[in-house]
Amino acid sequence: MAAEVVRRGRVYRLLASVLPAVALAALVPAVATVASSDPGAALPDPAVVTPAPDGSRIAAVASGPGREVDVSVYSTAMAAVEVVKVLPAADGATAAPALYLLNGANGGLGDSSWTEKTDIATYFADQQVNVVVPMGGRGSYFADWRADDPVLGHQRWTTFLTRELPPLIDAAFHGSGAAAVAGISMAGTSVFQLALAAPGRYRGVGSYSGCAPTSDLTGQLFVDAVVARWAGNAANMWGPPGDPQWAAVDPYVHAEDLRGLALYVSAGTGVPGPLDTLAGPGIDGDPIKLVDQDVSGGFIEAIAGTCARRLQQRFADLGIPATFDLHPDGTHSWGYWQQELHNSWPLFRAALGE
């Protein structure tokens, strides 16, 4: 079913590029609703979810594994259909806040996503919160890029995630309007930037193994490396090195504007830890996977750990309350991120009023 949603997303992306919005809207009802595999779960009907004034709308809804709902959202800013995975709140008849979980630098491609690599489906099964996992955005920093990239294309993720998507999700899943956002790796930077771009949108921000500074030399080199990994050019995102936009979106520089949010930051040091064993999550007894996690994951986490400690000092200097969970070991890997989500959820749940 998920593959069908992705296929439809590609069709809508093509249609959006050649058809006017009115013509595309006329096609939506014909493919909008797919029956749920769970007879006890009613899928939201796209036809009754009012499109945004700019034309953004829910294009299709399909049931996924278990409680998962695959929502295809047409984004006017992106001129494309983006797939979002939703785990509805335990009580669908009662208003619920939303927890947005952002994937890392690969945008959740393959099986490297919150829904595939962690236990969120069971962990949140009895929680009154809509868990929302946007798919896509590899190498994008979930930013609004200043220019289209020859490889990564037209990126307007900040607009999509802060203005277009939340009202549609709340309308479709009985949302209360309260929200928190958390992300791993690349998205561990983006979550702060999204909060800065849309004051009041989120009550809580969680950064797991991220690197907040973007405008100093180290930060720029790190961002360049992440974007280049996917053959993109970061100059199309925030301009050439030294451009004022790099500082304008830097959470370290604008840390004061994060005051008042429920803030959670975690990272390791890159030294192999308790989950970096042949029996660890995702290793499956494969020594090659373990070596890659220890070497590549260790190197990246060492940088993330340094960034996290710099941010901790920055918050301390400004007197900004925040929770930091900084470990003496641990690599850049999903087992640790699942643990940190569990550890941070009580903080976000309280901030969301649950």
> Which structural class fits the helix and strand makeup?
alpha/beta
Mean pLDDT: 89
- The number of helical runs is 11
Within CATH, the superfamily carries the name Alpha/Beta hydrolase fold, catalytic domain
| Strands ordered across the widest β-sheet | 1-2-3-5-4-6-7-8-9
Strand content: 15-25%
Tally of domains: 1
Unreliable stretches covering 5 or more consecutive residues: 1-40
Please state the second-level CATH architecture: 3-Layer(aba) Sandwich
Cα distance spanning the termini: 32 Å
Structural descriptors:
Rossmann fold, 9-stranded mixed beta sheet, alpha/beta, single chain, disordered N terminus, 354 residues
Explain the layout of strands and helices.
Elements: H1 2-18, H2 21-27, E1 57-63, E2 69-75, E3 80-87, E4 96-102, H3 114-117, H4 120-123, E5 130-134, H5 157-172, E6 175-184, H6 186-197, E7 204-208, H7 217-229, H8 235-238, H9 244-248, E8 262-267, H10 287-318, E9 323-326, H11 334-351
GO molecular function: acyltransferase activity, transferring groups other than amino-acyl groups
Protein name: Esterase family protein
Pfam families: Esterase
